[in-house]
Amino acid sequence: MISQETLNTALTYITPGIIQLLMDNRQITAEEAANLLYNSKLYELLEDRKTRLYHLSFPILYDMLVFNRVSSPNYLLSANHALLASSI
């Protein structure tokens, strides 16, 4: 498992990509996009090292946020493992 410091560094690269996708696709301001992301269940789970969501791409994370596919931790873990396995 990665360290908290490494996760924090990863989040500094991940969050701007998701925010940009929100701005582009939903025609909202950076502040609105940031509020939407930072107050979401997705971001809460991104901060949890056990979910390993930091491995996923911006578009996948964006889709998870927009289509509310973050309600079930079991779904997240199974989806994440499937995506990681398919990239090997």
List keywords for this structure.
88 residues, mainly alpha, globular
Protein described:
The chain has one domain. The protein is globular and about 35 Å long. Helices cover 69% and strands 0% of the residues. By secondary structure, the chain is mainly alpha-helical.
SSE layout and pairing:
Layout: H1 4-26, H2 30-38, H3 41-46, H4 58-66, H5 73-86
Helix pairs in contact: 1-2, 1-4
Structural class: mainly alpha
Give the count of structural domains: 1
Summed up, the helix count is 5
Say how many strands there are: 0
Q: Average pLDDT across residues?
A: 84
Quick take:
With 88 residues, the protein is mostly helical. The chain is 69% helix and 0% strand.
